[in-house]
Amino acid sequence: MGQLLSATLVMLLVFVANNGMQQTEAQGVTRPYVRPPARKNLELEFSLWQTSTSSATSPTQMHVSLAGPNKMKVSWMTGSRTYNVPAIVRYGTAQGQLTQVATGTTKSYNYLLYQSGQMHHVILGPLADSTTYFYMCGGFGLVYNFTTPPPAGRDVPIKFAIVGDLGQTAWTESTLQHVAGYDYDVLLFAGDLSYADYFQQKWDSFGQMMSPYAHYRPWMVTEGNHEMEYIPLLAPSFRSYNTRWDMPYAESGSTSNLYYSFDVASAHVLMLGSYTNFGVGSQQYNWLLADLKKVDRSVTPWLVVVLHAPWYNSNSAHQGDGDQMMEVMEPILYQAKVDILFAGHVHAYERTTRAYQMNIDPCGMMHITVGDGGNHEGLASEWLYPQPEWSMMREASFGHGELDVKNATHAYWSWHRNNDNEAVKADDVWITSLSGPKSGCESSTEFIMN
C-alpha cells in the first residue's frame, strides 16, 4: 500500500511539473549572473617522492568505478617504484571483517622527466546491490568504504551527479562539496579532469583533491581535450589519463579506454570519445553501432550519452568543435532514441529542448552542457543572439547537475549554481523517456551505415 501511494505521488508531481513546464518552456532564457572574481588556484601540499617507507607505500588518490555487473574497481596510487606494493584489496560488509581478498594490476608511466608512482587497479566482486562495503588498499592501513549502485531493473530509481571541466581551483572545491551533499549513486564526468596540461605533478594534486569525494561513490569519466597531452615523438596522447583512470571498456566490447558503455539500474550509459577517431568505419563508430544494437529498452529504458565537445552550443566559445562528430553520430543516436546527451568543454551551463539536426524535434535528444565545474580558465560568458529556438536555458556560472531517474518513464533534472558556499538550484525540468509507448518515438536498430 505504501509503495502504491509513493508511486501515485510521484506521478502526480510529474503531471503538475509537466503542465507547468509547458507554460514556461515556450521561450528560451538567457539568465545573466554577475560572478564574483575568480578564486585562486589551490596549492595542495603533496609529493610522490617522500623518503619514508610508510609514505611511499601508503595509498593516495583513491577512486572507485563500476567494473561490470555487480563489480567495482578500486584504484589508488603509491608514491615509489622502489617498494613494490601489492595490488591487493581486502574488503567486506563490516569494517572489522575484511575477509574477502581481490588482486589486480599495477601500472606506471614516464612522461619526459617525470616518473609516476604505481597506479593500482583492483576489481572487487561479485558484490550485492545497494550495499556499503569497507575496503583496505594494499592489504593494510586505513579502511575506506563505498556503496554499490541499485540493482538492475526497468523501474529502478537511480541518481546521477553530472560534472565537467573541474580543474583545481577553489571553485572546483566548492563544486565537489556541493556534489557531496547530493546522495547520488554514480557520478558522470564529461571530460577535462585535472587541467594538468603536460605538468604531470598536477595529476597528482588533482588525485589528492578528488580522493575524499571519489573513494565512496563510483566515478565514470570520459576524456576531454586537456587529457590529450600529446608531444610528437616523445609522448603519446592520453598516457596519464589512461594509466590513472582505467574505465571498464573491455566489458562493453570496446578496444579503447576512451569510449565505453555500462548498464546501471534502469539506464544504459554511453561514454563517447570526442578526441579519438569517430568517423564512419572507425573502431569507435563500429563499436557504437554494435553496442546500440544490444540495448534492450524494456530492461534499460533510459539511454544516456556523455562526451566532451557539445553538439548544440549557443555560446561563442568553442563554436563548431563538436560539429564533425555530430554529423557522423547524431543520426545513429536519433534512430536509437537517446534521451539525453551531456557535454562539457564550454565553461557555462546550457540546456536544450529535444532537438535533431538543429531543429526542435520531440523524438530528438535533450542536450545539456555542464562544462562549468570550476577550472582556472574561467567562464564562457559571451552568448550568441538571437538565442536559438532549441536553447531553453543558458547561464555562465560554475555549478553541477543532478539527474534523478524516478522510474522507467520519468526523470527530474536540476542544475545547481555555485553561489559562494551554497549550491543554488537555478534550473530544473521533468524529462520523459523516449522508450515509453506513449512517446510516439519508436527506436530502430537499422542504423545508418554510410
UniProtKB/TrEMBL annotation:
Catalytic activity line of the entry: a phosphate monoester + H2O = an alcohol + phosphate
Domain Purple acid phosphatase N-terminal: from-to ranges: 59-148
Keyword Isomerase assigned: no
Pfam families: Metallophos (PF00149), Metallophos_C (PF14008), Pur_ac_phosph_N (PF16656)
Keywords, alphabetical: Glycoprotein, Hydrolase, Signal
Domain Calcineurin-like phosphoesterase: 158-349
Signal peptide span: 1-26
InterPro entries documented for this protein: Calcineurin-like_PHP, Metallo-depent_PP-like, MPP_PAP, PAPs-like, PAPs_C, PAPs_N, Purple_acid_Pase-like_N
Domain Purple acid phosphatase C-terminal: 364-422
Highest taxon of the lineage: Eukaryota
Entry's EC annotation: 3.1.3.2
Family in the record: Belongs to the metallophosphoesterase superfamily. Purple acid phosphatase family.
Name of this chain's protein: Purple acid phosphatase
Organism encoding this protein: Sphagnum troendelagicum
